[in-house]
Amino acid sequence: xxxxxxxLTTAAEExxxxxxxxxxxxxxxxxxxxxxxxxxxxxHVLVTASGLDKSxxxxxxxxxxxxxxxxxxxxxxxxxxxxxxxxxxxxxxxYDAFPQAGAIVHGHSIWNTLLSNRLVHxxxxxxxxxxxxxxxxGVTTHQHIERIPVVENSxxxxxxxxxxxxxxxxxxxxxxxxxxxxxxxxxxxxxxxAWRHMExxxxxxxxxxxxxxxxx
Length: 216
Ligand SMILES: [Zn+2]
Prior knowledge:
Helix content is 37%, strand content 21%. By secondary structure, it is an alpha+beta fold. The site of zinc ion has 6 residues, from loops.
């Protein structure tokens, strides 16, 4: 085993532990959601195959894929069993947009589903004034303004991926992107950092939905 494949194996195990935590929070119901890690040296990505219960995820449930250089999210499967998720190409465009990202997590929570539907016509969720914003990498104050773009959902994943690429290009400082009525993508240098971002953002989304719903 080479150093880079050993590194990817360790990252895969860490990603599975994160998937179990996300599942325990109820953010990937009914086999939804997907997770990936990237080997920065080779550019190869391990990504969850479609239709798996994430509470039981093991490295055997990951496919190794290579994204083409076009930035479109097109990919080929290099190894692994199972069917790639249609959402794999969204991971590709996000890795392209954020060269430092080593992991991406995607979940369908109640709070991100409600909030993204509510604010899709604004084009973004804006978060400010919350201490937990400091859990986002590079953020040092609750006064930070986090603008998370919201993209219309679509079952045309080529189109959806182009919209995600456009949205993050317009919001290069964002730590996530929302698909309306669907879910959150967030990322980090490692699976642990991506998990921290997800946990913080989901907390903040719940705050926002409760605030809006109560008329504050
Ligand atoms: Zn999804």
